[in-house]
Amino acid sequence: MKDLAKIAAWGLLIELIAIVVFIRIAHSNLADPGKEIVEIVSYAAMAALSIYAVLRLSVRHLFLLAFFLALGCKIIEDILGYLFFPGLVKGIEFFSLLHLEHIVRGTVIYLAHSAGGLFSAFVLVKIAKTAQPLIKKDLTKITAWGLLIELVSLLAFIGIAQSRFADPGKDITYVVFFAAMTALLFAAVMKLPVRQLFWLAFFLALGCHLVQVILGFLFFPGLVKDLAFFSLDHLKATVLSTVLFFGIFAGGLLTAYVLVKAARALKNRKAGR
User: pTM of whole model > 0.85?
Assistant: First the structure.
């Protein structure tokens, strides 16, 4: 219970800071892109907290954590609303039936978000733990770096696309992502055997789709427009997207492999003269 209390306290602190900073920035000349930056930072912080919670808590305590975070977030919102920011509780009288309905409805909505985040973290941690004995250390590290590059790039792209820096910000994000991923693929070719390169292409492809889907269903609905989570259309989209990304990553790894082999052959030829 001690770990549960600590993690819940950190979660509520993140929520409190995020709400206050968001409101302050929303009423300043930094509203665009300040609000998007606050949202991205708070989502990233809660994602990290969710993964930490999954590693430290039992499943039963994860359910309690989701409820505490949801109820706490609603209470924080109401307290800030009645004391400092009336816009958060506009038209709602304190200790009224409407206020009770407002709390219940808000808690249920926040519970869906917190439970969804913890469930996603639980699945990712389970997959990582299951796959760890089956794959080599270098492959794990390179895959983790690849998924991190994909996550950060997608969050940066969404934040910039919704700001006044969209042009040329989106193009710059593409270039930085391409450069970082190219460097990663060359590092993979130099560190991993050929058989593991196929696994790397698959993990990066599936991970890229999962990152997009998780962010879409939890935070950015535009990424999964008109898709139900458990549906045949979603399954088809998952397969098609994974195949497409696999082709892209496999092509990148093949190109890097050919270039590295050519460079090594040229180096050996010069050394033999």
Answer: no
